[in-house]
Write a structure and sequence with these properties.
The protein has a domain of 115 residues. Helix 6 packs across helix 7. A two-stranded antiparallel ribbon has the order 1-2. 43% of the residues lie in helices and 4% in strands. The protein is mostly helical and 215 residues long. The protein binds heme C (HEC) (5 copies). The site of one heme C (HEC) has 14 residues, from helix 10 and helix 11.
């Protein structure tokens, strides 16, 4: 009897799911949304300029991509773009396909001179897409070959991205942040240095065995 009820429940869920699917089909198709030309949001050009500012700390990237805009204002989850972080050693940087999942839906209006209002960074993004080329993002965090670091171990232990990478969701242009822990000799250690790893491992009773981090 209990078994049968469970089956009934599954059936109800399936029917509800199908109904929700049908409802989604009645919404305007992406093509129709895209057909409405868009003017960029008021702050988007400022975010783009700050992300591409050559004088701000950090390497200038091939596309002025703002984390403050995407992860801050739009609250897109870190793991949506850095999908490997909780599963594998490397966090990875998103593919052009993932960016285009959103950006292929936006079409931009023209100004009175017939110039597209599309932000320049998005024009560059679409060039990579059309040429089927990956975006050559410049890497910011890179440990030497002899060190082993695994994201998933840290994410599983509940260490926040921001503890190691700083307030990413407030940064237009990404850069290596300084450690905020001051050492007895009053110099902050630079992140990614061995002392930085050891300091936190000591505080959290994680392993300090040389062979855990070194092959
Ligand atoms: C979940 C949806 C979404 C995804 C995924 C996404 N974006 Fe965006 N992005 C937006 C929205 C919304 C805007 C604002 C557009 C506007 O106002 O017209 C924007 C703005 C931008 C801008 C202009 C502002 C800035 O940050 O300089 C650039 C450049 C950009 N995106 C590049 C990218 C790249 C590169 C990727 C992939 C790594 C990406 N986007 C992924 C939604 C997304
Ligand atoms: C819409 C996609 C997107 C989202 C959401 C996003 N990122 Fe990123 N992230 C990127 C792209 C593209 C790059 C490479 C360009 C750059 O460095 O700005 C990057 C680079 C990074 C880097 C530097 C990688 C290196 O080269 O060392 C870190 C660290 C990072 N992201 C952390 C985060 C954190 C933490 C969050 C959430 C608060 C987040 N990201 C949300 C797309 C995203
Ligand atoms: C305990 C510190 C720590 C935490 C927590 C952490 N990272 Fe990292 N991250 C690093 C280090 C160290 C590197 C350099 C790794 C290397 O060179 O092998 C790195 C590299 C990266 C990169 C560069 C690409 C790559 O795969 O090497 C991205 C993107 C990134 N982290 C995103 C994130 C995101 C998103 C989170 C949260 C889900 C996060 N990190 C949590 C320390 C951390
Ligand atoms: C903000 C704190 C913090 C920082 C910084 C940090 N770690 Fe960790 N790490 C931890 C914690 C907590 C664990 C324990 C995870 C567990 O118990 O599974 C851990 C576990 C590990 C492990 C797995 C240990 C094992 O027993 O298998 C390795 C390897 C490691 N960290 C390497 C590094 C390296 C390399 C760095 C510096 C580039 C670093 N960690 C920086 C907190 C940190
Ligand atoms: C929690 C991780 C971790 C542990 C444990 C650890 N190291 Fe390291 N070690 C690193 C990182 C990260 C680097 C690279 C960054 C740097 O050079 O500061 C490094 C670099 C080194 C270097 C090269 C320094 C240089 O200037 O090139 C030596 C030698 C070294 N470690 C020896 C050791 C010995 C010996 C132990 C055990 C007593 C040990 N490490 C334990 C993370 C660790």
């Amino acid at each position: 009897m209990k078994r049968i009820r469970t089956h009934w429940r599954l059936l109800v869920i399936a029917v509800a799911g199908a109904a929700a699917g049908l409802f989604l089909l009645t919404l305007p198709a992406p093509e129709q949304v895209a057909a409405q030309p868009r003017t960029p949001e008021p702050d988007v050009l400022a975010a783009q300029a700050a992300a591409g500012d050559p004088d701000a700390p950090g390497p200038t990237q091939p596309i002025p991509f703002s984390h403050a805009w995407h992860a801050g204002k739009y609250e897109i989850e870190c793991l949506y773009c850095h999908t490997g972080t909780d599963r594998s050693a490397a966090a990875g940087v998103p593919s052009v396909e993932l960016c285009m999942g959103c950006h292929s839906q936006f079409q931009y209006a023209q100004d009175e001179n017939g110039e597209s209002l599309e932000p320049d960074g998005l024009k560059t993004l679409k060039q990579y897409w059309e040429n089927k080329e990956p975006i050559p993002w410049k890497q910011i965090h890179r440990l030497p070959e002899h060190v082993q670091f695994r994201h998933n171990r840290h994410v599983a232990a509940g260490v926040e991205c921001q503890t190691c990478h700083g307030p990413v969701e407030e940064m237009d242009k990404l850069h290596l942040t300084e450690d905020t822990v001051w050492w007895p000799w009053l110099l902050p250690s630079q992140k990614l240095e061995m002392g930085w790893c050891i300091q936190c491992h000591r505080e959290n009773e994680a392993s300090q065995d040389c062979l855990v981090c070194h092959y």
